[in-house]
Amino acid sequence: MSRNQAFLLFLLSVVFGLGAVFFAKQWMDRQTQPQVEVEVVEREPIVVAAQEIPAGTVIEEQHLTTRLIEKDWRGDNQFVTTEEVVGRVASNIVYEGEIVHPLRVASAGEGATLAALITENKRAITIRVDDVIGVAGFLLPGNKVDVLSTIKYNERSASTSTVLKDIKVLAVDQTAKNEENKPVIVRAVTLEVSPKEAEKLLTAKSKGDIQLALRNPFEPEEKKAKKRYVAPSVTIIKGTESSNIRVRD
């Protein structure tokens, strides 16, 4: 074998060796490469507030927008199109970016703005006021007031008592919104009361003059002290001896 033939064989063996290493590395890379599984997430639209919607506002198209969320996160009764919400009344404040939940808005056909704001088992009753009774115009929807009744017996004698406490103001005149924070002289104030409170209010109004007292919104609620029941006692006298016995149910 000549020197050239030996060199050629050596060169071919090197080339075949490098090729074997290359293909072996490719095969090993394919065996160790992780399998990537793509998870398909199904998304559906949902209606959210594009801006803050005050309570009592009739919702319009500009108040709303839609956003895609995962199907599993969406409730069964939530709105998927803005057309379902337009024309409804916000029962509570809906903040920007918040999902518009059916419980936060009045159902279609539920009535006017004020009717949608009344709490369950409550009533709205309107009383005529002047600039004094109306706290010089500082009453605004959402404020809390106490109702005081003054009964005049004669020119020199009168008595005042608190008839109702912590009563919510639903509307001032025909305004149920609170967009401006400045005094407005009003002629009527609508209060949210229970049926029993409505009876007490009208009774007090028929007996004398009423006055509204504006409450501090940060004042803690008054806790009513529970009266402790004390069973009555009976004294039993036998001859010269006497004893007290508690009467129990």
Quaternary class: single chain
Order of helices and strands: HEEHEEEEHEEE
Strand order of the largest sheet: 3-6-5-4-7
Tell the overall outline. elongated
Main sheet summary = 5 strands, antiparallel
Overall SS class: alpha+beta
| Percent helix | 10-25%
Q: Please state roughly what percent of the residues sit in beta strands, choosing from under 5%, 5-15%, 15-25%, 25-35%, 35-45% or over 45%.
A: 25-35%
Number of helices: 3
Radius of gyration over all CA atoms, rounded: 39 Å
List low-pLDDT spans. Answer: none
Distance between the termini: 128 Å
On the 0 to 100 scale, the average pLDDT is 78
Please tally the β strands and state the result.
Answer: 9
What does this 3D model show about the protein?
The protein is an alpha+beta fold and 249 residues long. Helices cover 19% and strands 27% of the residues. It has helices spanning 3-32, 113-117, 195-207, and strands at 43-49, 64-70, 123-128, 144-152, 158-172, 188-193, 209-214, 233-238, 241-246. It has a five-stranded antiparallel sheet with strand order 3-6-5-4-7. The chain has a two-stranded antiparallel ribbon with strand order 1-2. A two-stranded antiparallel ribbon has the order 8-9.
